[in-house]
Amino acid sequence: MTLMTRSEIKHRRNQGESYVDSRGNLIPPKQLKPLLDNCRCNCKHKFDNDYRQSLFDTFWNLPDYSSKALFICKLINVCEKKRERRRSYDGPSRRQFTYKYHLNTNEEICLKCFSNTFDVTQQFIRLVIKKSMSTLVPTDNRGEILCQFCLSHLANDVDQIMHHLKTCAYIVRDGKKGKYVCIQCDYNTPHSSHIKRHICTHTFGKSFKCTQCGSCFKTKDNLSRHIKKLHIEKPGNQEYQGAYPFHFLT
Known about the structure:
The protein has 250 residues and is an alpha+beta fold. 32% of the residues lie in helices and 13% in strands. It has three domains: 31-133, no CATH class; 145-199, no CATH class; 208-248, no CATH class.
């Protein structure tokens, strides 16, 4: 089973494709699920599968998390609740609104059939509702590095981070021994090569892959220690020969 980097897993998960998670489990691709035979909205007799399939394809072809959340928001109507349920205990109900779901038509669809149409969890739908109540669609900052000085979100790229820590006007260098200051912790050093190697501990993804067992590491030093510890018994033996060539994942 082929190992994947975190960026590959994220991309395939956002596109609804199959992927192998960090534990080695194969996650199947997203697909249109059938409507319930018996539900309060009688959904099975309202919507045909061709129309639902077109909505499913449109949803999973969206580029990122934010656009998917906005797409779901437009299919949910938030209304004032019409009735108060009688409860056996004293205290107000936690439910403040009534949520009605639709598929760009005037016909209402139940929550379970709505989640089956897009193959998303009800937890994801509740999160979208919660964010939409504050009129804010969350920005997808996963896979980005946050600068603790200027609060800028940087791409998961070492060269871009290096350029930022050299040019950021908010970095505090007073009292620091080193010229180069890490944007995520208190590490500082006078050597650019040292800070570049240190930045790899904060970035996502493991770019150095061992050709012997397929294990991936963030830095070349960690890969070298791994090879010496597990794949090399004594210098000069057969395992030593050809052990150090490795793949750099881009």
